[in-house]
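Aim 2, interim progress: modelling of the flavin-adenine dinucleotide-bound target.
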Amino acid sequence: MAHKVEKTFRFVIVGGGIAGVTCVEQLSSQIPSAEVALITAGPHIKAVTNYKQVSKVLEEFDVEERPSSVLEEKFPNLTVIHSAVKSLHTQSHSVETADGRVFGYEKLCLCSGGRPKLLTQENPYVLGIRDTDSAQEFQKRLSKAKRIVVVGNGGIALELVYEVEGCEVIWAVKDKAIGNTFFDAGAAQFLIPSLEADKPERAAPCKRPRYTTEEPAAGASQTFTADRNSRGRNSGPTEPGSALGPDWHEGIALRGAEQVSRRVSVEYQCEVEKIFTSEELLDSQQQTLRPENVGSWPVYIQLTNGKTFGCDFVVSATGVVPNTEPFLHGNNFARADDGGLRVDDHMMTSELDVYAAGDVCTACWEHSPLWQQMRLWTQARQMGWYAGRCMAAHVLSEPIELDFCFELFSHITKFFNYKVVLLGKFNGQGLGPDHELLVRCTKGREYVKVVLSGGRMVGAVLIGETDLEETFENLILNQMDLTPYGEELLNPNIDIEDYFD
Ligand code: FAD
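Predicted structure of the complex, ligand included:
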């Protein structure tokens, strides 16, 4: 290595997102005398605020961007270094930063997050949304846009199509239903009317306990329009850095150039075939455009269902790629199929004394049958916290067991202005055909789905103010045989809490 080690820390954490900051907090409070360094690319760090343990595993919190001095004031032995790590030397236990400094470590935790998986690299008409910077770029471009195409079916796409107004949105999803990462077709059907409604709305209760789901055929499209005039707030200046979280659009006016409010058309079961400019379109003989798409759009997108749309730009919301790049060269990290650094049940990578947490890692221990990894805020916090505990336990030669939070998958969020709680194998993940579903749905108010396997509850989706999360969490955790209760389990006239007390 060219440069001399400037200082060796007992613990070095890379990344000032939720995982990294939580890891720092955990280590600094557990071993206050230890010298800790947080090396992060951005000038701000993410802090968890208003943390609330809702039940045994469900947690809720807000995330704020803060200057790193807040952390340094709280923990006198913490040094924050604002520079990106450009290389890692696991043999000599040191990292080199972009500004040419070298720091040694006894134990290192990589929490560098992920970056958007873009449909194509370096196409100025294809945007990804990851951090405050990219969200502001999106806002700027949207303010002049008449039509955008959103590709992807995860949380970001869901939020985006709901929030954007004053601009036509073509939403291309590869599945039969919207929000496939989080929901099934029934839940999607429940949410779809929100795309037509004004927002924010509090739906009037409607006594319609049954619903039908018609899955759109491949290549089918659905259009929803809403007449809305509400505007978001303007954003203040912010810095680049870590991934945004649930309320990323709060404070950013997601408004296009048109007077119309929301107009969303969903193109189901299709992916992107090709993206090209108007010149390339003219050169190509095969392109057949519908009349409404002819015009001078700067970019055109051809979908695998044969349709081609002109638009102002394309938003690629197709997931994230773990940010492992700077750490790989010269080292021997085992990586998972999704590109993440493989970690064991102590958050340790395959390299000695290197741990990883959050979006950058892939949990490769034998999972509890009720847990799966999803690259979410909650898990970034839980992993950062647990990685900190493991690192401390290892230097103190104390035993440590996998934390209880990895027993049961749980997530609270908001989609289309509804509270959403996901528990366990909420979509029957990995269960094969060997499971049963019970559903209760009141249009505009609530959607409750329970996943049963062998008569025991293994997962649930709760949309709306159902107040069922704690009871269902208990039923999942205690694996009680629910066969005797049958469909009564979801009978709205039974107070289920009393039932199982
Ligand atoms: P990040 O928050 O990405 O932090 C990574 C940190 O590492 C950053 O500080 C970065 O500057 C730093 N870094 C990167 N490379 C280097 C380097 N080489 N050297 C030094 N520092 C480096 N999750 C939810 O639970 N609910 C949601 O509703 C939700 N919505 C989202 C909406 C958007 C638009 C996005 C992008 C994500 C959303 N997520 C949501 C996901 C959630 O934000 C992430 O899972 C979570 O923030 C990951 O935390 P992390 O600490 O692992 O990584």
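The chain has three domains: 7-113+323-406, 116-198+242-319, 417-499. The pocket of flavin-adenine dinucleotide is lined by residues 14-20, 39-42, 46, 84-85, 111-113, 129-130, 155-156, 241-246, 248, 323, 326, 358-359, 375-378, 380, 413 (CB under 6 Å).
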